[in-house]
Prior knowledge:
Helix content: 40-55%
Distance between the termini: 53 Å
Order of helices and strands: EEHEHEHEHEHHEEHHHHH
Number of strands: 8
Largest sheet: 3 strands, parallel
Number of helices: 11
CATH architecture of the largest domain: 3-Layer(aba) Sandwich
Structural class: mainly alpha
CATH superfamily of the largest domain: P-loop containing nucleotide triphosphate hydrolases
CATH class of the largest domain: Alpha Beta
Amino acid sequence: DRHGEYGSLKVASEDLGEGDSEFVDRIIEFSDLKKNRGGDIDIEYLFSLSAADLVAPNLCTIVNLNGLSLEVQEMIAGKLLKKLYDASTTRKIPPFYLFLDEAHLFAGKKQTETCDVVKLFAQEGRKFGANIVIGTQRPQLLDTTIRAQAGTWVVHNLSDIRDIGITISSAEDLSSENKSDISGLDKGESIVCGEAAKGIPLFVKVRKRKTKHGGVGFNPLDFLSEQTVEELQKRKNRILGGKSADELETGKSVYQEMMEPKSSAEYLDEIASLKVRIKDLEDEVSRLKQKVAHVKEGKNIPLIGTDEVVQELQTEIEVWKEKYKYIKEMAEKGEGDMVPFTEDSGALLDLNNRLIEKEAQLKKYKSKYDDALILAEKTLAELKKKGK
């Protein structure tokens, strides 16, 4: 849970009078309790617990990553998924479903250790009862192997033509005729296709949720009864009380290692890496500009792959913006042995300006490319009519 939205499952919806939901005693939420007071157990103890503590019948475990940098979120997700996958292969835990929200950030087209673990789940997990549910609003940015492994698709409204195209080409039983269906779905409506609906897509209206809608800053404790809050505290004490001091400290050290501030040398390496990526972005934008120009001139330049290049560039920009923000914050705080950030240093400011410039440039050429693509589609349609 990247944004701390799902702790609201503990609270009944307004239609039911708010207060405790029927699921409240089946949910354990890990979070940074300094930032997210509504959690049950501090996330620093996440790796102190066994896989069997996290996966059990009638239990929903939420890992609230709100407030953590994208880099730390990715490390936590990768390590936790590997732990659960290994436990499933040795039958130490019962069959379960793992929900990975905003999955394109953890399992995009750039290969990482976390992406490899998600692929392992998608390809092999079902053999051992380790089922994964991928949630994303940007299916085109997902790793292609993971996308291909999806058995059932639940498609909600998508507006981006590339996301719609990728969904139609990847999901079983969808065709180009469903483009307008997908873009026209209202809130609470979806199309179910694939293994769960063989042969024909099902148009589904999802019922109103029984729990309150959450969001950043939502604190379920503000809605729960005092008795429930006391019971949740007792449960926390029982869980952590069943672990030895060594187990608790070992888990905390794993988490603290992920949170460890970087040295000045590591920051300089990050900056150097950012500069290399900026250069790559400049080159890609330049190539994209040339392709758009050729299409506008009517030259026979293949467009296959250009769509994905645009989206990969957008993803890269978002990732590097996150990294820039993190580096800047650490530098301003002077954490580790990093020299405190000053306006005079200029290096990070210059890098940020370059990112802004490249983002604007990419947006400009993406717009031109979209126009060229529409023109090409119209031309093909006219040619087909003449051919008939």
